[in-house]
Amino acid sequence: MTTQQQAGQEKEQAVGQVEMSLRQDGRARMAGNTQAFLRNHAPFNKMQPDALQLFADKAKIVFYAAGSEIVGPDSGKVRYFYLIESGKVQARQAGEVTVTEYSILSLGAGESFPIGAVTAGRPSTNVYKAVEDTFCYQLPADDFLVLLASSPEFNLFCTRYIASLLDQSRCQLQLQFAQRASEQQTLNSPLHGIGSRSPIAVSPETPLRAALETMSQAGVGSLVIAGEDRKAVGVFTRTDLLDRVVLAELPLTAPVSQAMSPHPFMLAEHATAYDAMYAMATHGIRHVLVTDAEGKLTGVVSERDLFSLQRVGLRQIRQSIDGAHNVEALQQAAADVRQLSFNMLAQGVGAEQLTQFISALNDALTRRVIQLNLEKHHFDGIEWAWLAFGSEGRDEQTFSTDQDNGIVFVPPEDATVDALRARFLAYALAVNKDLDRCGFPLCKGNIMASNPQWCLTLDEWKDQFATWIRTPQPDALLNATIFFDFRALYGKADLADTMRRHLLSLTASSPMFLRAMAKNALDVEPPLGKIRDFLTDLEPGQPGKIDLKKYGSRIFVDVARIYAMASGVHNTNSIQRLRLAAQRLSIRSDEIDAVLEGLNFIQLLRLQHQYLEGEPGTQGDNLIDPDTLNELDRRILKESFRQARKIQTRLKLDYQVQ
Amino acid sequence: MLGLKKFLFRGSAQANLPDDVRASLDLWRASKAPPLDDVHFHTRYVVVDIVSSGTNPESDRLLGIAAAAVWKGAIQPDDTFYVDFSTLDGEGSTVDRELTAFLLFAAKAPLVTYHIPYVGGFLQRAFKERLGVDFQPQWIDLAWLLPSMFDDKGDSVMPMDHWIDVFGLDAGSGRRDAMANTLLLARIFQMMTVRAVSKQIDTAAHLIAESRASSFLRRTH
User: Which residue of B has its CA nearest to A17?
Assistant: First the structure.
């Protein structure tokens, strides 16, 4: 290049630079023009100058003639955030699924859309259409996200809006699952829409012959026995006919009340299919009677009705569990439990119910393993119970939960404790191994009944608890977080109750211990960053990930345990603990609801992560990368962590922990 | 005042132009005009308004230019231009550079304005006298086009404020600066292109032809 050319180029640049600078002047003027509008509308009028400048610098102005579509589900991932300058826009729900309270919404000057979709980086669920000639400011999605991150006021505005879309996020989640599970009907539908509306009912005095004729004529397999007030007193089924009439040689002239199963399980009409399903799983029954507000019979929901909602039937699983004669059969049942849980997750059952549900079926599974092994081990005449600890003890099992169990026994007066313990240990080892084969991995920390440390007599457990509470050393506190969440899974439940009463009487008189627990619970803080949304480098060897158990649900669980012990709550489930403790400690219910909402969301994310992202057949972990979440879920997760921090702060104040 | 007038209209002085201005003008002359047969969405229109000391392009002074590009269906904030000559107290070559910069910015795109004789008159004189450029862009005149496109809303050439009222645009209160005016024009232009498409006037070439025809018809009939 010659010197002349170079000089020419430099001078060309002089005009070029002038052009650049005049373009900037133009932009600044246009931005000033835009700002004048923004200053008249919330939330922009409250935003800092820098944020307004960012919006004004980047916002294009677009025109939509009356009748034209601005953005809709077919437009794909939303590329712009729209702020209406003038005109009117109608938001209409696309498709049949209603995700928000409104179906048509009219937006005017100063209102914006589609906040949820642009935040989450997904297509809009609504169709936005100009109903009048409309001008909009159009902010590119990337700039919108920058604004969201840099302006607390704008963030708050959008977060509040999105908070009202919490349920929508759940719908999104369900949609994902629904594509994998073929089921469509929701388990959240109330019972009054399910099952038989006009159940066949007879009075308790009806002779058996008449009752059987009624059944035969109506072609039904069961009858409800109800008084004149239409309040059900029993159920009579074909199974009862065999066991209680034929085999019991009951004359057909006897009243049906003598052959019926009394105390039928009843649910109110507004209870959900899920509730009925849970009841059937828990009680091993196949019919649930539906009643109105006054307790009068209005319907019957059978397992068959619910089966139509489910691919994997509940009763089938219960039956296969209860009828299993070896571990192989139980392994299949365990796989079914997972499939069923997955279907339920797909159908929108919340985390609280779902974890309880998994626990209920896992309990049944575990009980069967315990029973099967009792065929080779006999403990006749000895009072004992199989205890579940940790998440199992709290009814909070997710898809990947390892074993945490123990045994409590009361040695008869003439027995040697150690010899008896040796027998229990041999038995427990067999159970632990079988549970492992059924998908409950052996506990890495060896918190299992086959460990002599956790196979103790009632007095030993009491002493153990007392020792931990008297000397709240770190390992004692750690043990407390596992062992104080116990419940009896099999055997004599009274033993567990005795242990609980003992424990609560000890903790009630040991404020020092609770304070040490509180201090311990505050060691781990929710991973909220001061600059970034999340701290993702807390797990060694797992950069970019957050352990949702360690830094999420465990915080809630730890706080719940302390408040439960402080207020004498017998429950082990964290949600129940928090609800009951809140009542006793006069914590506002809306405050505790927000906390539970946070815990539930984290649990839901864990379940989703374990099921959707785990390799088939392997144990899922709790490590999620927040960057892989959509913006909406990220925001809700952040809010959930804030709730964790809030409840920690409360604990800190209550126990004066620095 | 007189000094400024001297800067802006110093007579034919192309020979005295700084090298960089001449080089840029050569570049501009050699550049190809964008095609005019594409649909409005893909065409870059430059909406332009000026500030002047009076209404006579022959005797009054050009004080500023405000321009904003409309393309891909939007007024693009990063494709705008504003120059203010009124506070200028530097040497004449600054004005030359700024005027040349406008040519580079416009890049031979069709220019949209309100009332060509006024806006075009001032620009033509400035470019002629300062840069020796015969400025003959493809003009689209909203003053003539609007009554032809929106004959339901006005049937003759009217002040721009009439259209601002008719379209219910918020023009703010008090004096508008040139950029505010340009942005209002740009909005009106956006509305007009929608109307134009419904009349099968769907390319820049069509629009330019329609603009010429409407002003010709109105003037001669």
Answer: B101
